[in-house]
Specification:
Blueprint: E1 2-4, E2 19-23, E3 26-33, E4 39-43, E5 46-53, E6 59-63, E7 66-68, E8 76-86, E9 94-105, E10 108-110, E11 118-125, E12 128-130, E13 138-143, E14 148-153, E15 158-163, E16 169-174, E17 181-182, H1 185-190, H2 192-198
Parallel strand pairs: 1-2, 2-4, 3-5, 4-6, 5-7, 6-8, 7-8, 8-9, 9-11, 10-12, 11-13, 12-14, 13-15, 14-16, 15-17
């Protein structure tokens, strides 16, 4: 059964509903326990200060929306399209499918699984990305301006015009191929030891 939030309050929702449409609404400063839903679609809405609690098998789709100051930890998203995600927490989130035409602003993205994802025309501005898994992902026209990046896994990722030049901190966990990535000279100096390890060199740390 499909239920639309635009036509019902959460108190009216039946426990048997499996699909929830959050369409054309504005929600502020609330906790949404959505663990009974298998599919949630957020469309043309604005969520501010919302904590979204979902079940491990719940799939969330966000389209043409603004999410600001929300706790989206452990959320599993099927796609995020043409949206702004600002000052949100995405600890342990899993993003699958596609993220296209999206701005992430001042977000905390920690231990998130983005393996195999398609990131296209995406900007991360002043975000923290810690231990984010982009294994086998496809990145095109992605920028990380002002971001603090640590333990980023780019193993087997395909990159086109991925711009790290304005990142305030940059540290990779695994990245076999950085072709298609833009780095500054100073960043390559900072990554010199890591790059040497990736190429199989033994690093002598003590006196010769």
């Amino acid at each position: 059964m499909v239920r639309s939030l635009a036509a019902a309050t959460f108190e009216d929702l039946e426990s048997g509903d499996t699909w929830l449409d959050i369409a054309g609404v504005e929600l502020k400063d609330c906790v949404l326990d959505l663990t009974s839903y298998e599919t949630i679609e957020v469309t043309e809405s604005r969520l501010v200060g919302v904590r979204m609690i979902t079940a491990p098998n719940t799939l969330v789709t966000v389209r043409d929306s603004v999410l600001e100051g929300c706790d989206l930890s452990r959320m599993r998203s099927e796609s995020v399209l043409r949206s702004i995600i600002q000052r949100c927490k995405l600890a342990g989130a899993e993003l699958v499918g596609a993220v296209v035409d999206v701005e992430f602003v001042d977000c905390s993205i920690r231990m998130a699984n983005l393996a195999g994802i398609q990131l296209q025309r995406v900007s991360f501005d002043d975000c923290e990305l810690a231990d984010v898994d982009l294994f086998n992902a496809n990145l095109a026209d992605v920028a990380f301006d002002g971001c603090r990046i640590s333990e980023l896994n780019l193993d087997r990722a395909t990159c086109e015009r991925v711009d790290f030049r304005l990142a305030s901190q940059l540290d990779f966990k695994v990245a076999q191929d950085l072709s298609g990535c833009l780095l500054t000279v100073s960043q390559t100096h900072e990554l010199a030891t890591w790059l040497a390890h990736q190429l199989g060199a033994s690093i002598e740390t003590g006196p010769a």
